[in-house]
Description:
It comes from Sutterella massiliensis. Required for maturation of 30S ribosomal subunits. Belongs to the RimP family. It is found in: Cytoplasm. About 25% of the residues lie in helices and about 30% in strands. The N and C termini lie far apart (about 50 Å). By secondary structure, the protein is an alpha+beta fold. It has helices spanning about 5-15, 45-65, 85-90, 145-155, and strands at about 20-30, 30-40, 70-75, 95-105, 115-125, 130-135, 165-170, 175-180. Strand 2 (about 30-40), helix 2 (about 45-65) and strand 3 form a beta-alpha-beta unit. The strands form two sheets. Strands 7-6-5-4-8 form a five-stranded antiparallel beta sheet. A three-stranded mixed beta sheet has the order 1-2-3, covered by helices on one side.
Amino acid sequence: xxxxxxxxxxxxxxxxxxxxxxxxxxxxxxxxxxxxxxxxxxxxxxxxxxxxxxxxxxxxxxxxxxxxxxxxxxxxxxxxxxxxxxxxxxxxxxxxxxxxxxxxxxxxxxxxxxxxxxxxxxxxxxxxxxxxxxxxxxxxxxxxxxxxxxxxxxxxxxxxxxxxxxxxxxxxxxxxxxxxxxxxxx
Length: 186
């Protein structure tokens, strides 16, 4: 077991022991450790939740003699990353952006192969370590900035094309995150 995976496992056990969901651990420049946590409870992660986890991890790192300069504990935000099979299962039916390690070829794709996909998570199936994700690929037209919202409001709506159902292995995913519709009108 590598030092990074051992630290990951230690932090995950601690975070989940406190009743939160561990999303990811990042070791960044200048000794920054960034821990992202989530919850299935109504209301999401609060500042108090982050403080509680931060205090516990600070004690843990002192006892385990883990070197770091700064610790940051936060929620995953609106574009929550999808890391594990349980994330894909939990967010089935939601819109997502997926980047694969290599372009995939599938019937109905507008190009010969695509590495970046947007669409809806349908399901995840398969044995642990061999999970396959079923995904409906289509052009997601959700504004992600106030400027995009204004441009979309001026543009006439066009007929949406039918989604293309594709399947890929979880191991083929480089990175993925949810896509949330934001209200820029306040």
